[in-house]
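Notes from hallway chat w/ T.B., transcribed later so I don't forget. T.B. wanted the structure written out for a chain they're using in a teaching module, and asked if we could keep both sequence and structure tokens in one place. Agreed to drop them here.
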Amino acid sequence: MNKLIYKKFFNNITIFFILTTVSLGLIVWIIQAVNYLDFVSEDGHSLKIYFYYTVLSLPKIISRIFLYGFFISIFYSLIKFEENNELLVFWTHGVNKLEFTNNLLKYSLIVLLVQIIFTTLLVPSSQNKARSFIRSSNIGYLPSIIKERKFIDNIKNVTIYVEKKNNRNLNNIFLKDQYDNDSFQIIYAKKGVLKNIAGKNYLLLFNGKFIKNDNGIVNSFDFRRTEFNLSKYGTKTTTTPKIQEVDTLTLFNCINSFLKIAPVNFNKFNNKNFDCFKNIHKDVIREFLKRIYLPIYIPLIALLASLIIGESKNAPNYSKLKFLFFSLGTLVVILAEISIKFVATNIFQNIIFFIIPVILFSTAYFYTYKKYK
């Protein structure tokens, strides 16, 4: 019988947890998606790239609200069970509150494992995949980034100035194509038209002049019509992976190359686009611990949420205690997010980072044990 009532309780928490986390995640995702419109309006990427990038950002958003969603789910479920007298089913079947808390902690360990899988595998993989779309993208939506009487340098190695623009028709165009530090070409044209031919962007220029500078040697000549292929150029959007986009094994290899954690000499990195150098040493450690160690707060917030079962709904101060326990859990979630800042080269700060959740959990569990025993 006890297994059945536990199953019902944990099924309710799981369903509510999934709904809460996904709902909050979608709200944040929609807001983020609006911000990502700059990829189209300013950087010139296609709507297809924008769609892929925004969709792949969802796992990262879910992981960021995972902790708080879990706390809300347990806290809300326990209150609803208490107010509906459903917790009495446990007590009348011989389940004491300490045993109930211990089973809740076991459930939190499963959630902890899910979160670690999420942060170490799914999130960095989706983030790196999103960056790879940007990396392989060319200028897909060029008309959106060209504006009248503004120097547009969103295209890598190319600067464009247009005096007048009417949809895809341009007047008085200035274009500079930088080959390297000492070589470039400048193109001036009275008229121009943006064309998309076989999926590639071309700028057709009419009645203008080429000026080429090749290591100080200048040549110039006029033209009546020429084509400038813009599809071979990328945007200035960051294409190298950020640390949070690098896979976990590569981060560990990078840390080991400095700290020599493992006896094996890891000199090869899985992500060829990632450069491991000493200046990012601290940031790499922070990202690695964020994925591996921060989920340890999950059992702690489960324990804090369970404190409410020690209080009767008929107690005169029940509402105040609900607010107190909810505030306490929220503060711990915030602490978990900011504690990563304690990670540094200073040993004392690192010790603080590691022992904070251990001390808080030990204190909360000692209080629970004394009260229920």
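Follow-up for T.B.: The two ends are 23 Å apart (CA to CA). Might be a good example for the class.
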